[in-house]
Amino acid sequence: MSFDSEPEGATVRVAGKVIGQTPVSARLDKKNDQTVSFEMEGYRTVSKSLATKTDPWFFGNIIIGGLFGSTTDFASGAIYEYSPDQYFVTLPPVGSAGILDKNQSLERFVVVTYGELRSAAATSRPTDDESFSNLLAALEINAANTDRVTELAHTLLDHSNPVDGANAVTARF
Fold first, then answer.
1. Where are the beta strands (DSSP E) in 30-77?
2. Residue 94 predicted with pLDDT over 60
3. How far apart are CA 148 and CA 139, in angstroms?
4. pLDDT score of 109 more than 70
């Protein structure tokens, strides 16, 4: 799992245990109902639940390994995987109303929908995708402006990391 924040350098805790400072990647025990928190002096703490989903391999292990294989997976937590596997938060300063400016909202949207945006960018008609079209609208880019649409698609494809991609989009557009 990877964690990042704006500003960088926030302390990341999962289930109360310090994982590191953003940006940070860590392997986590796959448990249901865990919470991640981002803390930094001068900023309000942001906490989120780590969402899990059942790993599709769990069902394959039932077929291959029978009941024993599935019981072992369940006991070890291997039936879960985290979705999403990347978290990005914007820490609001202490005393602020918590309202995000346009760039922060845009960065958050890009990070959350990054997989879908990159998939759309790789097609010949990215404007057919709802998330891509919403991004164009937020950036005030006319979908008929093929040069700008192509430039945006290339920007998304040039960055595999959602946070880097979001930063590139807000810096360029």
1. 34-39, 46-50, 52-54
2. yes
3. 10
4. yes
